[in-house]
Amino acid sequence: MTGPDGHGQPGDDQEEREAGLALERTSLAWTRTAISFGAVGGAVLKANVITGLIILALAPVVWHLGRVSRGSAAREGLPLVSGTRLFLITVSIVAVALICLAVAIFGKSAPGALR
Amino acid sequence: MSWSRRLAALLPRTVAEDSGGTEPDARFTFANERTFLAWSRTALALVVAGLAIVQLLPPFPRVPVGRHLLGLPLIALGAVLAVTAYGEWVRNQHALRRGEPMPRSVLPWILSATVTLTAVIAAVVLLISAAR
User: Fold this and answer.
1) B20 contacts in chain A (CB < 8 Å)
2) Quick one: closest CA in B to A78, which residue?
3) What is the pTM (predicted TM-score) of this model?
């Protein structure tokens, strides 16, 4: 992956040469991330219904953020290099972690559910 | 660089105004974004694992705080991992634009330390709870 100038060049692998495939892999990564938010929401749902629903609602938002990236890239042939989307994901995860901390400390547990 | 400047460098507006260097190959930008997303999912996995330990595991005999001792650090480290992943995305994008060598990632170190520490705490808690 590193060219003679040391800056790195796309490899010989066709998958690496095709920007369209890289775009598709990135779209799939966004989809997996949205599913992960859904999974966390489902887990929190068991402990606190309202909080779980709020986190579940983040899943389609995350998926839409991925679509924003995909649509822009398709129009302009370039990725939308916007830190805002990624910043939003980071803020969401920190918020989810804080909510989970609160649920873990103050919420009623269901001990033995994994017994 | 001061901490306030480091934090300011992470804001989306600062990243967008980074006009130095040239636009990197789209594939590298996509790869950087996918790496960030993969770390984000790892952070979410840590959070949900911590929550599951606290909420679903039966209490450890003789170690009433055992579940919280294991679960709460995992949730907190999930948040730390997410913020660090964003910082690394910014640094990598900066390096890609300028054709500089990619900076070393601290994320694998954080994850390894977290998993090791959790395993050690789990072993200690289990030993204490199993002792008669």
Assistant:
1) none
2) B26
3) 0.83
